[in-house]
């Protein structure tokens, strides 16, 4: 049974906003504590919210700017400075 607390804030359209890195890490730590065997398993993610496909996680996390469903990583090439960052991309 999963007893992790979901992030339940919603935006103006009634959609789920997302979770902070702090909340994500707390959930991961609680999950790992309850399921230590999972620590050596491959990490996968769903391609969409309906679970129509899955892929393995290939990349390290990065900070960047998330706006209007677009993500630009922290880099000189993208023109994103550390002060502009508002999101962490986990894949």
TL;DR?
By secondary structure, this protein is an alpha+beta fold. Helices cover about 15% and strands about 20% of the residues.
Give the termini separation: 26 Å
Q: Strand percentage, roughly?
A: 15-25%
Number of strands: 5
Secondary structure class reads alpha+beta
Biggest β-sheet strands, sense, barrel: 3 strands, antiparallel
Q: What is the strand arrangement across the widest sheet?
A: 4-3-5
Low-pLDDT segments: 1-10
Q: H/E series, N to C?
A: HEEEEE
Average pLDDT for all residues: 85
The percent range for helix content is 10-25%
Shape: globular
Total DSSP helices: 1
What's the Cα radius of gyration?
A: 15 Å
Textual characterization of the structure:
The chain is an alpha+beta fold and 91 residues long. The chain has a domain at 1-41. 15% of the residues lie in helices and 21% in strands. The protein is built from one helix and five strands. It has one helix spanning 21-34, and strands spanning 44-46, 54-56, 62-67, 70-73, 87-89. The chain has a three-stranded antiparallel sheet with strand order 4-3-5, with no helix packed on it. The chain is globular and about 40 Å long. Residues 1-10 have low confidence and may be disordered.
Name some characteristics of this structure.
1 helix, 15% helix, alpha+beta, disordered N terminus, single chain, 3-stranded antiparallel β-sheet, 91 residues, 21% strand
How is this fold's topology laid out?
Elements: H1 21-34, E1 44-46, E2 54-56, E3 62-67, E4 70-73, E5 87-89
């Amino acid at each position: 049974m999963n007893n992790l607390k979901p992030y339940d804030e919603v935006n103006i359209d009634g959609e789920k906003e997302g979770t902070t890195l702090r909340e994500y890490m707390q959930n991961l730590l609680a999950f790992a504590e309850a399921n230590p065997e999972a620590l050596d398993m491959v990490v996968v993610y769903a391609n969409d919210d309906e679970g129509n496909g899955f892929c393995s996680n290939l990349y390290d996390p990065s900070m960047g700017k998330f706006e209007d469903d677009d993500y630009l990583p922290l880099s000189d090439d993208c023109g994103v400075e550390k002060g502009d960052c508002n999101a962490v991309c986990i894949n």
